[in-house]
Amino acid sequence: MTEEAANRDGSVDYGGLLHAVASRGDRGAFSKLFEHFAPRIKAYCLKRGAPPSAAEEIAQEAMIKVWRRAAQFDPARASASTWIFAIARNARIDAFRRETRPEVLPEDFDAEDPSADSFGHLADAEAGNKLVAEVSMLPADQAEVVRKAFFEDKTHQEIAQELSLPLGTVKSRIRLALGRLRKSMSEFHP
Amino acid sequence: MIRHHIAHDLLVDYASGSLPEAPSLVVATHLACCASCREEVRRIEDIGGALMESAGTVPLGPDALAAVLDRLDTREPETTAPRLDEESTKVLPGPLARHVHRNLGDLRWRRLGPRIEEAVLASASPIFKTALLRVAAGAAMPAHTHGGREYTLVLKGGIRDGGTEYRRGDVMSLDETHEHKPVATEDEECICLVVLDAPVRLTGRLARLLNPFIKH
């Protein structure tokens, strides 16, 4: 039985569903996660240039990784959508670039660096919805570079080349845009 | 205490997933040593997660969920962490240890000078050179004039360049616009990870012909 995991505002608590998967292998909870995230991962892969069959395959692979690694999800470190985004991003890189993705794991952290990792993060769907509005309100030049960075698989250098802009201009546009999005998100979740 | 961090644009490229393997290795290795850059990457991933959340949906095939449910109990192929000797474990942070996958002593070290050795590491892409450098205490580091970006991450010992000192986890990012005379500090030998990305500067059609590996 899956209890209906919900945030106070009534939206689905995806972190709670991940916890149900991790703690008791809850397939019902997993199916809900799948229904929400798999079509988003597929859309994300298509936007980043994957052919449809590959996007479908990556979405399925990523969700299997979500199932296997659910115990590593730490709600104090990341929201469910941030964590699943990272899994999907890496699955896409593994499938496409034929390169490995150097990742840093919690057990890698140098001991002499005691500062606690991270506090506060977005609550999934609500923040996502808020962000759509925010991205659409970004000045056009900033929105363009953010889209290229996150959805077109382009580095700063490649964006600069494509738009015939100095690298410094691309850097500052992305910084401004991220600062602005972040500010709006922290206002949303103080 | 980390003083010299990864440039913000590289953190964004790493978090968004567009950064190639070789510079990603420098970023991930730095992240193992630096909580504040880890935090920044996580914040950028928050934005990536929110953008994915809001990027629309494309339905999967009708049997996708059933197919995935069927596969849930298959075990993940084990990616065993390498078992390294004490020195290698101490010097190589996790992301780099998994990439190198052998002890420092088992690498192929090539002598570049009386007090400096280099071990070239495997790289998925020929446009990058990835290597470990081992420099005797107090010896001069090689001064590259390759005309591209270069990242040097200190793993053991230290580097002094002018009035600036770099220690474990610190990243020295050199470019051809500055005079650099980096020297290993006197206290012990210095081991560092070096990634060069010179050919990325080739642009235009000729470069595409010459180098099919540059993405377009």
Q: How far apart are the first and last residues' alpha carbons of chain B, in Å?
A: 39 Å
User: What assembly state would you assign to the polypeptide chains in this entry?
Assistant: heterodimer
SS strand fraction of chain A: under 5%
Helix content of chain B: 25-40%
Number of helices of chain B: 7
* Largest sheet: number of strands, sense, barrel closure of chain B: 6 strands, antiparallel
**Principal-axis shape of chain B:** globular
* Mean of all residue-level pLDDT scores of chain A: 83
User: What is the number of beta strands of chain A?
Assistant: 0
In short:
Helices cover 65% and strands 0% of the residues of chain A. Chain A has 190 residues and is mainly α.
Outline the structure in words.
The complex is a heterodimer of chains A (190) and B (216). Chain A is built from 8 helices and no strands. By secondary structure, chain A is an all-alpha fold. The mean pLDDT of chain A is 83. Chain B has 216 residues and is an alpha+beta fold. In chain B, 32% of the residues lie in helices and 19% in strands. In chain B, the strands form 2 sheets. Chain B has a 6-stranded antiparallel β-sheet with strand order 1-2-3-9-4-7, with helices on one face. Chain B has a 3-stranded antiparallel β-sheet with strand order 6-5-8, with no helix packed on it. In chain B, α1 (8-16) crosses α3, α2 crosses α3 (35-53) and α2 (21-33) runs antiparallel to α6. Chain B starts with 7 loop residues before the first helix and ends in a 6-residue tail after the last helix. The model of chain B is unreliable at 199-216 (pLDDT under 50). At the A-B interface, α2, α3, α4, α5 and α6 of A face α1, α2, α3, α4 and α6 of B.
Secondary-structure blueprint:
The complex is a heterodimer of chains A (190) and B (216).
Chain A lengths: L13 H11 L2 H21 L4 H18 L10 H17 L27 H14 L2 H12 L4 H8 L3 H22 L2
Helix pairs in contact in A: 1-2, 2-3, 3-4, 5-8, 6-8, 7-8
Chain B lengths: L7 H9 L4 H13 L1 H19 L10 H8 L14 H6 L2 H7 L9 E4 L2 E5 L8 E7 L14 E7 L2 E3 L2 E3 L4 E4 L8 E2 L5 E7 L7 H7 L6
Antiparallel strand pairs in B: 1-2, 2-3, 3-9, 4-7, 4-9, 5-6, 5-8
Helix pairs in contact in B: 1-3, 2-3, 2-6
